[in-house]
Design a protein that fits this description.
Strand content of chain A: 15-25%
Oligomer: heterodimer
Structural class of chain A: alpha/beta
Distance between the termini of chain A: 64 Å
Number of strands of chain A: 10
CATH topology of chain B: MetI-like fold
Order of helices and strands of chain A: HHHEHEHEHEEEHHEHEHEEHH
CATH superfamily of chain B: MetI-like
Shape of chain B: globular
Strand content of chain B: under 5%
Radius of gyration of chain A: 28 Å
Radius of gyration of chain B: 21 Å
Number of helices of chain B: 14
Largest sheet of chain B: none
Helix content of chain A: 40-55%
Number of strands of chain B: 0
Strand order of the largest sheet of chain A: 2-1-3-10-4
Number of domains of chain B: 1
Structural class of chain B: mainly alpha
CATH class of chain B: Mainly Alpha
């Protein structure tokens, strides 16, 4: 038995494989071998009574199965290092394309993206979720984790701007916003909602309090998630939503109307290594990639701006 | 506990623990100070009042329409009735978010019904009416199912006797059928009210979330979760506590206690 398992071990340790095999290929090899074992075992069992033989056969099969499964689990753990990246929902598309780039540059690494609202991610990290990297849409949540000693010092890797998302046939300029019948914003509790309030306040200072007042009168909903605000426009139920430029990029049926630069709040995305990450070098590599040309290109094509 | 039922307790205990543990931990996670602070929070006051108003209106609409519908479903034969009975249960099995999208398709701007209503000056989405409609659609099946089961158990002979003694159909229904099915009607109403209060997904899509107009308790909790977890937790405890009181009140009703005895 010990001698027979040796080639499997060898395959598991990959000393004979010049190229790293995938888990799937390895599984095929293991299954093929476990089937081959059946033949030499048969003559030994033939001397027993039929009941004994079938029982022994079952027992041996069970042991073999356990060994094979154990090896598979070991192999699966050894061959794929997982890098857990916790990212704000607005980063979903950009990080999704960077995931493939990173995995091809780091063979054997499996990037696991966990995207949610920055507040939710913060809560998960506070509760001990296994994170290596945290990318937040809001510096406040990052700062809270840092003062709690849960993340290392953050670096800004991208910026964003606010736009008015409108249907294809909607308004053409920001000045038309008060003429929209139904306006949807993010809730006051989410960053997108706070930035929307900042834009409207700034517009009120620039164009007069009436302009801001008219906009606020047309607000029919403050959504707990910026993508839901955008969905209301995409569904044709709202005429305008104040969302991030990156949210509208690549969406059909929705158009972005620019908001003048003097009304724009400063929107920056910080990223940091999580304290106690089991893969600190990989976490650093991910953060460096975000700030490299490759990262900037991916973030740029997803609608993000460079770090200020 | 008899010997023959003990295995049920032993095997069921893990499920019981799984159901109750989160609620027990939730209560333990909030301090009395946080609970008191949430009680005075403007979000809670507005959301609780809106939830109370909309869910009571929804409940009244459901009972008014659901009682005759259930009577028809319970006392009629034939496959069309069975098809209707199945269709009425649809909102139970469909995710509430789907109900929300469907409601937008039905009453939204692009739709025929929505267009007609809008031309009459009644634009439904993002209004308190939209909250009530979402609650009615999602909660009504719970009442109809329970009421239909209750009406099925009403003895036909008793109804016949009432008719032979000169009672009109309407009077026989009100004086014989409704009292006989009362435990099921009340249980269904309680369950459906609780479901209306807890309605989240369809409301968020169809009615949006605006404090004082469409932001009900579940939406307020979800919104608070983005900024203040302690507040969200305290709001959850208040809502959970209110639901528990409601549940107990329904179970303690004299009619239902007689039924169990």
């Amino acid at each position: 038995m010990a001698e027979r398992t040796r080639p499997i071990c060898a395959a598991a340790c990959r000393t004979r494989c010049p190229e790293p095999a995938t888990v799937g290929e390895f599984q095929d090899a293991v299954v093929a071998r476990s089937l081959q074992w059946r033949k030499p075992a048969a003559p030994a069992n033939a001397r027993h009574s039929q009941r004994g033989a079938s029982y022994g056969g079952f027992r041996h099969a069970a042991i073999r199965l356990a060994v094979v499964l154990g090896l598979l689990v070991l192999c699966a753990c050894q061959s794929r290092t997982e890098l857990h990246v916790f990212a704000a929902s607005s980063l979903t598309d950009a990080f999704g394309s960077l995931e493939a780039t990173f995995e091809s540059a780091h063979p054997g690494v499996d990037v696991r993206l966990n995207t949610a609202g920055s507040q939710t991610l913060r809560l998960q990290i506070e509760r001990g979720a296994p994170a290596d990297v945290f990318a937040s849409a809001n510096p406040a949540h990052m700062e809270a984790l840092r003062s709690a000693g849960l993340v290392e010092s953050p670096a800004v890797f991208a910026s964003n701007t606010m736009v008015v998302a409108v249907p294809e046939s909607g308004m053409s300029g920001f000045v038309d916003l008060p003429r929209a019948q139904r306006i949807v914003l993010g809730a006051q509790t989410v960053p997108a909602g706070q930035y929307a309030d900042a834009v409207i306040d700034a517009a009120g200072r620039l164009r007069g309090a009436d302009f801001a007042e008219e906009i606020r009168d047309r607000v029919v909903s403050r959504e707990p998630n910026v993508r839901l605000a955008l969905a209301k426009v995409a569904l044709g139920e709202a005429d305008a939503a104040l969302v991030y430029a990156s949210d509208v990029r690549g969406r059909s049926g929705v158009r972005a109307v620019a908001i003048p630069a003097q009304l724009q709040p400063l929107i920056v995305y910080p990223v940091a290594r999580v304290v106690g990450s089991p893969n600190p070098e990989l976490a650093t590599a991910w953060i460096e990639m975000l700030r490299s040309d490759v990262g900037r290109r991916a973030l740029g094509s997803a609608g993000f701006g460079a770090a200020p | 506990m008899t010997g023959s039922s003990r295995f049920g307790w032993v095997l069921g205990a893990p499920l019981l623990a799984l159901i109750l543990l989160p609620f027990v931990m939730l209560i333990g996670a909030s301090t009395p100070g946080e609970l008191a602070a949430a009680l005075g929070h403007p979000t809670l006051v507005d959301a609780a009042w809106l939830s109370a108003r909309t869910s009571v209106i929804a409940l009244l609409l459901i009972v008014a329409g659901g009682t005759p519908l259930s009577w028809w479903l319970a006392r009629s034969q034939g496959w069309p009735v069975r098809v209707v009975e199945t269709l009425v249960a649809l909102p139970i099995v469909v995710p509430p978010a789907v109900v929300g999208v469907a409601l937008l398709e039905a009453y939204g701007r692009g739709s025929g019904v929505g267009g007609v209503l809008a031309s009459l000056g009644w634009s439904v989405p993002f209004t308190t009416s939209a909250v009530v409609i979402a609650q009615v659609v999602v909660a009504a099946p719970f009442f109809v199912q329970s009421a239909t089961a209750g009406f099925r158990r009403v003895d036909s002979d008793t109804l016949l006797v009432a008719r032979t003694l000169g009672a009109t159909r309407w009077r026989a229904f009100l004086r014989i059928a409704v009292p006989a099915a009362m435990p099921s009607l009340l249980a269904g109403a309680g369950l459906c009210w609780a479901r209306a209060v807890g309605e989240f997904g369809a409301t968020l899509l169809f009615a949006g979330s605006l404090q004082g107009r469409t932001q009900t308790m579940p939406l307020a909790i979800f919104t608070a979760l983005e900024a203040d977890v302690a507040l969200a937790r305290s709001l959850s405890i208040w809502l959970g506590g209110a639901a528990l009181v409601l549940l107990l009140a329904v179970r303690m009703m004299p009619v239902l206690r007689q039924e169990r005895a």
